[in-house]
Amino acid sequence: MGEAGRAPIELINIAFDFRDQQGKPSAAPDRLAGIAGLFALKRLFPDREWRFVEIDVTQADREEAEESIKRLIQPLTTHMDLNIGTAFWFASRGRGVLKIYDPLTEDLLYQQTNEEDRPLLRLGEEGALKGVGRELASTTETTQSEPDETMESLLADDEANVEQKAPHWCQRMQTDAAYKCKTHLKGKAKREGTSHVTEASASSSSAGASVGNGGGDGGEEDVTVHIDYHSFPVQSTTTYTAQCKALLVGIGADEQLAGYGRHRTVFQHGGYPALQQELNKDLTRLWQRNLGRDDRCIADHGREAWFPYLDEDLVAYIQQQPLSHLIDLTLPPGVGDKQVLRQAAAHIGLEKSAQLVKRAIQFGSLASKQTSVSYFGSRRKGKGTTAI
């Protein structure tokens, strides 16, 4: 293998600074997923040099660059396009810090939760449900053991719609399905003056490391201590600017392998024939909807965007396969969507990464929250389709 084949690989990770009402910085799900992927890659390919480049975008950084980014994403003008374009623009600029995390960090990643105790890294199966505030209820609590189609389609919807619909949905329908909403159960417990909801929900909402008194019998009980992402042990931090000439971009996987929530809705109504039509439409308009915007934002810093999932041979191969051989949307999010890609990742050793439920870059990086506060006064009021 030549010199280029041994060059360091830079993993550029974007997160937007967003703070809660107490001023505490939030952990971006994409940052946690990136660190988890870093550890997995190091185990699989220990001879390669992996450089994890963390780029944190403050509100001041974004506002300074925003007018230039708006010009680059034209003729697109929506809130979603601005968020995505901004993420790619700062990724291509490549100014951040090079971090080397202590191996102890890996065990903490999947314990991180948001302010509502929802896991920030959502895995398939039950993890997809917990990510929107639900858990499968005990069969002793209900006579209905399976959720209905309406609930499943809601949970599979895109994250923005879930955030808007979920509170109304679970108050109206949670008694009709085998799910319980931790957020509303906790609200009920607080109103009734109780200190906990149920033994199961109390234990599942505790995230962190179990710490004892170091003794044998007769000591204090173990307690659970939450360790926040911003306190993760780091071996070194160095100011760094990315050296790569090209960025590998994952566009094309969702459009060809049913990665979006709306694909699940189409499949539920029309099966594989309707889904195939929707995917064909997505691929046909991809150049107009995504590629121009992202290519211009990346090229603004003199780097080239490469799209491996749009390789002509790969696209042709996917088109030749029966769709049922590639995906299975009867399975939950994080399992059936992009199934063949998930199976390939698991096959080479990326088991946890292969189970992650999709988050759009504007949500996983917290770009949407930061810009929603700036433009709409609240992180929950901004809509992706609103013109900026």
Overall description:
This protein is an alpha/beta fold and 388 residues long. It contains 15 helices and 10 strands. The protein has helices at 29-44, 59-73, 79-93, 106-109, 126-130, 149-155, 159-173, 182-192, 199-204, 253-257, 261-299, 312-320, 339-347, 361-364, 367-376; strands at residues 9-16, 50-57, 95-101, 134-136, 179-181, 209-211, 223-225, 234-241, 246-248, 304-306. The strands form 4 sheets. A 4-stranded mixed beta sheet has the order 1-2-3-8, sandwiched between helices. Strands 4-5 form a two-stranded antiparallel sheet. Strand 1, helix 1 (29-44) and strand 2 form a beta-alpha-beta unit. Helix 2 (59-73) packs across helix 3, helix 3 (79-93) crosses helix 11 and helix 3 (79-93) crosses helix 15 (367-376). The longest helix has 39 residues, at 261-299. It is globular and about 50 Å long. The N and C termini lie far apart (48 Å). Residues 129-226 have low confidence and may be disordered.
